[in-house]
Amino acid sequence: MKKILFAFTLSAVLAVFASVSFAAPELTLIIASNATDLANPYSHGLDKFKEVAEEISGGKIQVTVHKGTLGENESELIEKLTMGAADIVVSSPGFMTAIGVPEIDIFSLEYLFNSFQHWEKCLDGDFGEAMKKIVLEKTYNQFRVMGYWSSSVRDVYAKKPVKSPADLKGLSIRTQSSQVQQAFFKGCGAIPTTVAWGELYQALQQGVVDGAENDYTNITLKEHHKTPNGKYISETHHDFTTRLFLMNGDRYDRLTEEQKEWINKAAQASTAEERAITYRMFGESKQKAIDGGAVITEFADIDIDAFRAIARPIQDDFAKRNNMQEQLDMVRSAAE
Predict the structure, then answer these.
(1) Phi (first) and psi of residue 87, to 5 degrees
(2) CA-CA distances (angstroms) from residue 189 to 172, 173, 185, 281, 285?
(3) What element of type H or E holds 67?
(4) What's the CA gap between 86 and 182, in Å, rounded?
(5) What is the pTM of this model?
(6) How far is CA 134 from CA 105, 145, 148, 223, in A?
(7) Do 239 and 154 meet the contact criterion of CB atoms below 8 Å apart?
(8) What is the per-residue pLDDT for 13?
(9) How far, in Å, CA of 143 to CA of 208, rounded?
(10) Angle ∠(263,141,319) on CA atoms, nearest 5
C-alpha cells in the first residue's frame, strides 16, 4: 500500500513539476540589432524587451535576443525580418526609400529637430503616429513601427574646427548616403564622400577624407577622434537621429489581443530604456572624447542659424516633392 501511495504521489509531483517548469511558451520571439557592443543602447533596449515581455506574460512569451549575431549589417536584419527568421529588429529608416517609401527620408532631413526634447515630443505625438501609418500602408503591412529609438545626435568632426558653413567649404566629408543629407553638405560647400564605416578610421588617419559626421558614442567606440582628421569635433547637432524598432505587420496581426498587449508594453519599456541609455552615454562619450585628445567646439559657439538657413529650403523641397507638408508642419509647430 505504501509503495502504491508513494508511486502515486511521485507521479503527481512530477506531473505538476513538468507542467510548471517545462510547459512550452505559447509564443516565441527572435529580436535583433546589428550592434555587437554590449554597452550599446540597442543592447540595453533589447534586454529590457525580453525582461518585460517574459515577466508580464508569466513566461508565456519566450524571447531570444541577438546582438549582432544575426548580422552586423542592417540589410541582413531586414531580410531576416521579411523572411520570418527574426520577429523584431532595430534599423535605420533609410532602407525604405529603396523599397518605395520615399516619405521615410523625412527622418534624414538635417535640422528637422532642434533638441532631444523636441524629437521626443514629435515622435511620441501626432507626427510619430502619422509616420507609423505611412510605413504600415506603404509597405503593405510588411513593417510595423513598434517604437522610435535614438542613435543620439550627430556632429561634424574633421581636421579643423567647424563653426559655420564657410568652414566646411572644400572639405571632403564622409556622409550617409541619403540624398537630402548630401544636398545639405553640398549647400555648405563641402564635398560629400562615401566611405564604408569599417574603413573610415583608416580614411581619416591617412587623409583620404577631411572629416566625417556621427555621434559621440560611435566616434569614440571607433576612436576616430584619435586620428588627425577626426580630432576636432564641432557640435553642429545637425541630426537628432531616429531608429525604428520594427516588427513584421502580418506576424503582429496574427497574435491574440492579449499577446499584442504584452508586446506593446514590452516595446514601450524597451524604447524608454534605449533612449535613457542613449542620453546618458552622450555625456559619457563626450568626456571620453575629451580625455582621448579631441578638441571640442561647443554648440553655443557655432553659428547654428547659418546651418539651419541652408537646411530649411531642403526641407521645404522634400515636403513639396513627397506631399509631406502636413508632417513637416507638425514638426515645426512642435518646436514653438
Answers:
(1) -105, -35
(2) 10, 10, 7, 31, 29
(3) strand 61-67
(4) 32
(5) 0.90
(6) 12, 10, 14, 38
(7) yes
(8) 45
(9) 38
(10) 110
Between CA 328 and CA 316 the distance in angstroms is 8
One-letter amino acid for residue 257 of the chain: E
Looking at residue 56, the DSSP 8-state letter turns out to be H
pLDDT for the residue 37: 81
In the chain, the N- to C-terminal Cα span, in Å, equals 83
**How far is the C-alpha of 232 from the C-alpha of 227, rounded, in Å?**
10
3-state secondary structure of 261: helix
The stretch 318-333 carries a mean pLDDT of 98
CA–CA distance, 131 with 164 (Å, rounded to integer): 32
Amino acid code (one letter) for 143: F
Asked whether the beta carbons of 37 and 46 are under 8 A apart, the reply is no
203 within 8 A of 227, measured Cβ to Cβ: no
Q: For cell 574646427, name the residue.
A: 161
Return the pLDDT at 197.
84
Convert 204-218 into a string of H (helix), E (strand) and C (coil). Answer: HHHCCCCEEEECHHH
CA 115 – CA 106 distance, rounded (Å): 16
CA distances from 114 to 291, 305, 306, 311 (A): 27, 11, 14, 12
Nearest to 240 by CA among 156, 116, 130: 116
